[in-house]
Design a protein that fits this description.
mainly alpha
Amino acid sequence: MVNYNAYLLLAKGLSFFEFLTNLGKLTVKLEGKKQAISKE
């Protein structure tokens, strides 16, 4: 049972990390668009 809980925590942590990574990529894309617009 302990191993199962540890696996669940690990899975949640990985999915949260993946979420943060995707959020970071999205933020970079948005910032890039803002800079491209402000340059014009």
